[in-house]
Amino acid sequence: MVALDQQLTDVLGAKSAKALETAFDMHTVEHLLRAYPRKYERRGALTDLAGLQIGDHVTIQAEVLSFVTHKNKSRAGTRQEVVITDGTGKLTLVFFNQHWREKELSEGARGLFSGQITVFNNKRQLAHPDYELLGVTDEVDASKYVDMYLPVYSATAKVQSWTISKCVDLVIDQLDVLEDPLPESMRNERKLIGLGDALKWIHRPASDEQLEQARERLKWDEALSLQLVLSKQRHEERSWPAVPRLEKPDGLLAAFDASLPFTLTDGQKEVSRTIAEELAAGHPMHRLLQGEVGSGKTVLALRAMLTVVDSGGQAALLAPTEVLAAQHYRAITKLLGPLAERGKLGSHDEGTGVTLLTGSLNTASRRQALLDITSGQAGIVIGTHALLEDRVDFYDLGLVVIDEQHRFGVEQRATLVAKAGSDRRPHVLVMTATPIPRTVAMTAFGALDISTLKELPGGRSPITTHVVYAAEQPAHLDRAWQRAVEEVKAGHQVYVVVPRIASQEDKPTDKNQRPAIALEDLAPQLMEGPLKDVRVGIMHGGLSGADKDDVMQRFALGPAHADGIDVMVSTTVIEVGVDVPNATMMVIMDADRFGISQLHQLRGRVGRGSAPGLCLLVTEAGKFSSSRERLDAVASTTDGFKLAELDLEQRREGDILGREQSGVRSSLHLVSVLKDDELLEEARVEAERIIAIDPELTDHSALERSLQALVNQDRAEYVKKS
Ligand code: ADP
Ligand code: MG
């Protein structure tokens, strides 16, 4: 009998076990069996060579006639051609650089050969077939080979699929799952088969039905395990102490609210209430605030920060880029007005210091900023990754706000959170403008509660989007530049977005594809051509922090000002958060090279003020290209959630969760966060129920053990921090 927790060395021997360990980090039988086949192929029925069709998957019983090694003509290496016959015809097997096979496939050797029939030089062949040799007297047990599921495993150069398959063969028949991790009641209720059968059938299904049942059971295990890890995490985080931050009736927040030039939308009010309640609790808030660009998240974050400052604590806002950090700094000091001028003459007595900390500060400013953070002079600290450095030491960090979460790894968040001290946690508010369908958010940000701002504040102007087919209608592009000049003449600013900075950067992988339009090429063309009468500035990630800042500020000044910039030609550095309400038009060049969500993000930069926005998606893509469909979709709606779903459908799931979240993803083999949303939701409910009554899973020890095996220690750490 073989048990799941048995070491592979015990059952497979040292050599195979070592190979699996090196290639896949597998140590136990469970590790091996949890690596399910990537797909299944069906061997065709035992076939006569005479009746072969191109493309058939076949198994042939035949004898070797000859083995010849050829030197490749055009490139290094050798090619082995092995001619086999079954008496009805001949067929050539082809291998590359495998001269050693001559020992096995010498003249007269008999065996079963399987693979797919291809054609080369008008000759049918079987390229690198799978084969099994038969001794001279062996009876052929054809039934073992034909017309059954051939599991195909994820292989490496060193460990081939069939090597794994053979290892699985060695354990699968003797497998004995002593205790099913799923309680029987749950199995009955969900009509799931036992774990032992499920593992046997996923590896060696005898029928479609078995495969289906195995999948169903193992999918539930995955979904439940994932949700249990996340539930446990939520439970743990909520049991950390946090300093309750209460609203003060005559504090900074009250003064701020009184000075706000607008009233909060109902949605904003509701989220604000939730945040206030959570800040007032003795356990840390962990909230994800998602909402369209311009839906008013920043104002809510600022209100939360002021609540914390009112109660004597500090709030830190972490932004992904210097441009954004600087912009947050400006926006927040502006919104706060005199409230941000603590200690200055004539300032509000309830004011607080607002400090910006980025990598590009000079030594003196940095020293001052660090001092203000340590002493508590700075109630609100805004910064980039520079905030994560060791020497940044807060006086009393009560709230961490993270803007545009998808740009930060989970590790980074953990670093900042730890700055509140070892005995408590700060409240955490994560803001993202990238709409994510609920189940994806639930998985990627599983430990966070989610609030969504659905509507834009009233008075927001609509954005009209058009696709400009530059190749087919060049006149439309000329007209676009005219329109840009008109917008400037009317007192507004215009963005022009290009996919990259320099022309010689990356060569296109597809030779037929024109290199993407580069900022360095386009900007001078525009300045000398259609935009020669307006002031053009450039903006990209290669500029110094000070230069970026300068361009942004002058762009914000715009046509009305002597030092202003009217048109900003930029890379996607402006994608997130940049807020110049007076900008009304955006031209996105080579728009087909951007993803749906990215286009939507970009276009959110315009129409933020009182004037309507216009976005032109310029493409040279042809009429029938697939990108055209995407562009038309972006032009047809401004509903970010709709577009996000469309986007997700077109991308691979790996991209959705992002690399940082791979800890979660690596435990999902069968479950799709997109397609299995119902299953994930059901598993979540079940997990919450279990954790509520048994947070340590002490009464579910088998479940706990299987959880550990599925989500190994490293991964659990990862998930914890997400
Ligand atoms: P987000 O961070 O979600 O992109 P912001 O908080 O930056 O959105 O808000 C975008 C703009 O709308 C800002 O200029 C902000 O002052 C303004 N704004 C926010 N809430 C409202 C509201 N309820 N009514 C009017 N304007 C608002
Ligand atoms: Mg914002």
**What radius of gyration results from the CA coordinates?**
31 Å
* DSSP strand tally: 21
**Unique ligands:** adenosine-5'-diphosphate, magnesium ion
Quote the beta fraction.
15-25%
Question: What's the CATH architecture name of the largest domain?
Answer: 3-Layer(aba) Sandwich
> Gap between N and C termini, in Å?
39 Å
- Report the major sheet: 7 strands, parallel
Shape: globular
The computed structural class is alpha/beta
Question: What is the share of helical residues?
Answer: 25-40%
The residue ranges in which pLDDT falls below 50 over 5 or more consecutive positions are: 652-665, 713-722
CATH superfamily of the largest domain: P-loop containing nucleotide triphosphate hydrolases
Give the CATH topology of the largest domain. Answer: Rossmann fold
Q: Whole-number average pLDDT?
A: 84
Total count of helical runs of at least 4 residues:
25
CATH level 1 name of the largest domain: Alpha Beta
The total tally of domains equals: 3
Kindly report the spatial arrangement of strands forming the biggest sheet: 11-12-10-13-14-9-15
